[in-house]
Structure formats: C-alpha cells, structure tokens
C-alpha cells in the first residue's frame, strides 16, 4: 500500500488527496495511528524524557494529523503520502541496531549509512517538501482549521527532519 505506484494505479489521487484514496488506505492510516500511539506509550514508560522528547513530539503531531484523516475519512491520500517518510525509518532503525551492536566500523554500517542518507533525501526531505507545496497550492480548497493543522504539522516536521539530517551527516560522514 505504501508505494509511489499508487499514483499510477490510482491516478485520481494525483488530483484529490482529500477525498480519494485506494482500497485499504484508510485501514493503513488507522493502523499507523495505533502504532504511533503504542510507541508513544512505550517511550513514556521505558525511556527518560530527555532522551525521547523529540520523538514524543513527532508522534503527537502524527497522531493528531493522521487521527483527523481517520476520523473524518478525508485527507487519507495525504496521510498515505506522509507515510512514504517511514520508508526511511527502516534504515534509521537498522543504523540504531548497528550502533547498539558496536558495528560502526563495518561495511554493513557504511552501506546502511549511504542508503539511509539517500532514502532520507528522497522519502523524507523531498516528500515533506512536496507535501508543503501541495498544502500551499491547495490552501483555498482546504478548510481553515484543517489547513492550520496541516501547516503547523509541516512547520514542525520539516525543521525536525532537517535537524536530524544534519545530525546524521555530522555523525556518519563528517566525523
């Protein structure tokens, strides 16, 4: 379900990310809300706040934005595009596992760093830029309250992701 080919298979999504979405997309976004809620509670219970506040903040924004899409049965297509960001999470999590296993000086870590950086640019930075552009271009077709939530969400997520990108570059490439 999380595939750019969805635009090919469901071209109507290219024109309408508000009311149009492929079969199963609503369930995927709803399941994602559940995942982010569970991960939020897990972090609250098992991590120190100073270690997890950024992710807790991120999860709060996602839960609110995706929750609106799930409850209103609208903007599911937009939320589906937002889930493309999570493709990069595979490599971010693998990076963390390799760090915990003390495998920083391995070919596997280096290869993952390169893939992580590439997927970060494509699936995080480019996707967020596209979403911000879409939101701006469609501001007259989106109710003011929803536009405000989307704008605030983008205003929070974009700098957070740029800061994380800088940290990854500094840590993995500019030691």
TrEMBL record:
Signal peptide: none annotated. Its main location: membrane. It is found in: Membrane. Residues 1-175 form the TLC domain. The keyword Isomerase does not apply. The chain crosses the membrane at residues 53-72, 78-94, 114-132, 144-169. It is a multi-pass membrane protein. GO terms for cellular component: plasma membrane. GO terms for biological process: membrane assembly; phospholipid homeostasis; plasma membrane organization; regulation of membrane lipid distribution. Keywords: Membrane, Transmembrane, Transmembrane helix. PROSITE patterns: TLC (PS50922). Pfam families: TRAM_LAG1_CLN8. InterPro entries: TLC-dom (IPR006634), TLCD (IPR050846). PANTHER family: CT120 PROTEIN, TLC DOMAIN-CONTAINING PROTEIN 2. This is TLCD2 protein. It comes from Dicaeum eximium.
């Amino acid at each position: 379900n999380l595939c750019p080919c969805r635009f090919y298979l469901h071209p109507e999504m290219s024109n309408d990310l508000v009311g149009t979405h492929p079969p199963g997309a609503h369930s995927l976004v709803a399941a994602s809300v559940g995942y982010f809620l569970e991960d939020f509670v897990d972090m609250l219970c098992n991590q120190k706040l100073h270690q997890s506040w950024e992710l807790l903040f991120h999860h709060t924004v996602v839960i609110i934005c995706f929750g609106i899409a799930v409850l209103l049965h609208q903007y599911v297509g937009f939320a589906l595009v937002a889930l493309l960001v999570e493709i990069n999470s595979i490599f971010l999590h693998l990076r963390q596992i390799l760090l915990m296993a003390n495998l920083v000086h391995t070919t596997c870590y280096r290869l993952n760093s390169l893939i992580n950086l590439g997927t970060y640019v494509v699936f995080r930075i480019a996707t967020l830029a596209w979403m911000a552009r879409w939101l701006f271009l469609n501001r007259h077709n989106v109710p003011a309250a929803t536009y405000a939530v989307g704008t605030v969400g983008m205003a929070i997520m974009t700098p957070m992701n740029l800061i994380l990108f800088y940290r990854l570059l500094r840590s993995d490439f500019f030691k």
